[in-house]
């Protein structure tokens, strides 16, 4: 099902080029989504289909009723959600790496020219130009994906599992009663995942507010410098660009709060997520 540890390493690298709120968003993704999903998935949802029982002996009726009740497994739905909301961040990281490489080539060609300062007077790296536009679009698309998956979950399942599901789908001879195992426990888990998704959504909105609507308007216009100056070149005036704290530490782990050991969490989370998918193959 793919190398999830590779995804974890990419998201970990994205921490170095994110704002403080962006770092918190990635921590929420790793701890409260991937790890919790892995910890509870097998125990809560392992019997999802095997214990879905209907009071009929009609061949095929139970299978079609299960398909009607659960068009897609909750686990697979949440895994898809994690993949989709992570993709904009990975695209942003790819843009960062591209700009860094372009800047290195430009320096080699123009060593004799005077360069604007890389950092501001506070020692912070500036995000500006095309990189700022990419970062803004990254947040916008993450927000849209979060809203889309929340609405999708609502229209597919709702946010509450009823113990009894009535099904009249062919080839059932009539309307039959089907029973879902541990509906209360699963409902609690569904609500928890919904709350975490809403927290991620709020963090995205706060980050847009943090960047400022003025910067959003500037970011989608053509008033900024070209790509080569986006990441490492300083802004000409204060307020021209969003800044990120300087990373004066050997690893990303050392730059994060004590509660957010991202390298350990990301590696373990991706391993757990891979095991989840293997269990449901």
UniProtKB/TrEMBL annotation:
<comment type="function">
    <text>One gap junction consists of a cluster of closely packed pairs of transmembrane channels, the connexons, through which materials of low MW diffuse from one cell to a neighboring cell.</text>
</comment>
<feature type="transmembrane region" description="Helical">
    <location>
        <begin position="188"/>
        <end position="209"/>
    </location>
</feature>
<feature type="domain" description="Connexin N-terminal">
    <location>
        <begin position="43"/>
        <end position="76"/>
    </location>
</feature>
<feature type="domain" description="Connexin cysteine-rich">
    <location>
        <begin position="145"/>
        <end position="211"/>
    </location>
</feature>
<feature type="transmembrane region" description="Helical">
    <location>
        <begin position="78"/>
        <end position="100"/>
    </location>
</feature>
<keyword id="KW-0303">Gap junction</keyword>
<protein>
    <recommendedName>
        <fullName>Gap junction protein</fullName>
    </recommendedName>
</protein>
<keyword id="KW-1133">Transmembrane helix</keyword>
<keyword id="KW-0965">Cell junction</keyword>
<comment type="subunit">
    <text>A connexon is composed of a hexamer of connexins.</text>
</comment>
<keyword id="KW-1015">Disulfide bond</keyword>
<feature type="transmembrane region" description="Helical">
    <location>
        <begin position="135"/>
        <end position="156"/>
    </location>
</feature>
<keyword id="KW-1003">Cell membrane</keyword>
<dbReference type="Pfam" id="PF00029">
    <property type="entry name" value="Connexin"/>
</dbReference>
<keyword id="KW-0472">Membrane</keyword>
<dbReference type="InterPro" id="IPR019570">
    <property type="entry name" value="Connexin_CCC"/>
</dbReference>
<dbReference type="InterPro" id="IPR038359">
    <property type="entry name" value="Connexin_N_sf"/>
</dbReference>
<comment type="similarity">
    <text>Belongs to the connexin family.</text>
</comment>
<feature type="transmembrane region" description="Helical">
    <location>
        <begin position="20"/>
        <end position="41"/>
    </location>
</feature>
<dbReference type="InterPro" id="IPR000500">
    <property type="entry name" value="Connexin"/>
</dbReference>
<dbReference type="InterPro" id="IPR013092">
    <property type="entry name" value="Connexin_N"/>
</dbReference>
<keyword id="KW-0812">Transmembrane</keyword>
<comment type="function">
    <text>Structural component of lens fiber gap junctions. Gap junctions are dodecameric channels that connect the cytoplasm of adjoining cells. They are formed by the docking of two hexameric hemichannels, one from each cell membrane. Small molecules and ions diffuse from one cell to a neighboring cell via the central pore.</text>
</comment>
<dbReference type="GO" id="GO:0005922">
    <property type="term" value="C:connexin complex"/>
</dbReference>
<dbReference type="GO" id="GO:0007267">
    <property type="term" value="P:cell-cell signaling"/>
</dbReference>
<dbReference type="InterPro" id="IPR017990">
    <property type="entry name" value="Connexin_CS"/>
</dbReference>
<dbReference type="GO" id="GO:0005243">
    <property type="term" value="F:gap junction channel activity"/>
</dbReference>
